[in-house]
């Protein structure tokens, strides 16, 4: 993952507005071979350019990430929020995709934002690659996150959690056609779907969800459930805690460090969610079994 540099041009391909591209494939069933149409999720770089008086007349690159085109402004806002560059929506004066350069989003920060670009880029670089292997170090990362505490008496019915994956899947526009897209969804405690975002990257899907709510003035996500389509890593717990949600649930498994961080911060972590059951790894008190 590059930072502070302009990304190389991606190979050109006929993309659609939905972020999919059509290809021809040789399909085998047993020994029979046919030529068929297929859909792939588009993967392309997105560079985030920061504009701020402290940077001078020209913008500085915050970095580049590989993503599926769509909701680029929300993705940029979510990344900047997750890395601590901004704290509220009003820290952004304007955010827009470039009309002259594809795969670039310009973020104009309010002059009052105290900008430490070098530290921000270091954190972004670490989070993009492995989450905790950057110059900030594991202890610093955990210390910054551990001060965030979830404190809510709201509970969710077991039956509600069981039906969330089906609701998210039915609301995904891209997964059905590609099979290669991750999703993040936001629900209230009654199981009402509030938003869903998709991306080829698990982290990007959650950043889009957080950024969308940040720009709409809906943070913190108090008494909300975040549902992920894949596994739960330490970084995804970080992002969820910073957004203020009470419960994070996932179709996949959590890592040991994810469970440890969720336990210490009061976040309820649920894994392997199916329509028949799930595992609750931390703070099971928020799951109510009325039956």
Account of the protein in words:
This protein has 291 residues and is α/β, with parallel strands linked by helices. The protein has a domain at 156-288: 3-Layer(aba) Sandwich (Cytidine Deaminase, domain 2). The chain is built from eight helices and 14 strands. It has helices spanning 72-82, 117-129, 138-146, 158-171, 175-178, 202-215, 234-243, 256-265, and strands spanning 20-29, 32-41, 44-51, 60-67, 92-97, 104-109, 156-157, 182-188, 193-199, 224-228, 247-250, 268-271, 279-282, 287-288. It has a six-stranded mixed β-sheet, sandwiched between helices. A four-stranded mixed β-sheet has the order 4-3-6-5. Strand 12 (268-271) and strand 13 (279-282) form a beta hairpin. Helix 1 (72-82) crosses helix 6 (202-215) and helix 6 (202-215) packs parallel to helix 7 (234-243). The longest helix is centred in the middle third of the chain and has 14 residues, at 158-171. It is globular. Residues 1-17 and 126-137 have low confidence and may be disordered.
* Gap between N and C termini: 48 Å
Mean residue pLDDT: 85
CATH T-level topology of one domain: Cytidine Deaminase, domain 2
- Strands of the widest sheet, in order across it, are 9-8-10-11-12-13
Give the overall silhouette: globular
Helix proportion: 25-40%
Strand share of the residues?
A: 25-35%
Class by helix and strand content?
alpha/beta
- Oligomeric form: single chain
Radius of gyration based on Cα positions = 20 Å
Question: Briefly, what CATH class of one domain?
Answer: Alpha Beta
What's the architecture of one domain in CATH terms? 3-Layer(aba) Sandwich
How is the main sheet built?
6 strands, mixed
């Amino acid at each position: 993952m590059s930072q502070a540099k302009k990304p190389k041009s991606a190979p050109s391909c006929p993309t659609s507005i939905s972020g999919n591209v059509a290809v021809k494939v040789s399909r085998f069933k047993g020994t029979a071979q046919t030529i068929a149409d297929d859909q792939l999720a588009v993967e392309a770089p997105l560079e985030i350019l920061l504009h701020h008086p402290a940077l001078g007349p020209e913008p500085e690159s915050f970095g580049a990430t590989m993503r599926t085109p769509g909701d680029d402004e929300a993705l940029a806002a979510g990344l900047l929020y997750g890395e601590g560059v901004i704290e509220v929506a009003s820290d952004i004066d304007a955010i827009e995709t470039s009309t002259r350069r594809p795969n670039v989003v310009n973020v104009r920060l309010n002059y009052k934002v105290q900008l430490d670009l070098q530290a921000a880029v270091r954190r972004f670089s670490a989070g993009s690659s492995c989450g905790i292997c950057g110059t900030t170090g594991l202890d610093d990362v955990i210390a910054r996150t551990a001060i965030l505490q979830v404190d809510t008496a709201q509970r969710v019915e077991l039956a509600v959690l069981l039906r969330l994956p089906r609701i998210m899947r039915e609301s995904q526009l891209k997964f059905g056609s590609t099979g290669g897209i991750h999703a993040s969804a936001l629900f209230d405690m009654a199981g009402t779907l509030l938003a869903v975002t998709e991306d080829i990257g698990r982290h990007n899907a959650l950043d889009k969800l957080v950024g969308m709510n940040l720009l709409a003035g809906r943070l913190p996500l108090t008494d909300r459930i975040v549902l992920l389509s894949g596994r739960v890593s330490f970084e995804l717990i970080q992002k969820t805690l910073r957004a203020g949600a009470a419960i994070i649930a996932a179709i996949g498994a959590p890592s040991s460090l994810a469970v440890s961080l969720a336990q210490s911060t009061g976040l309820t972590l649920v894994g392997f969610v199916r329509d028949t059951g799930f595992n609750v790894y931390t703070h099971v008190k928020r799951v109510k079994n009325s039956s």
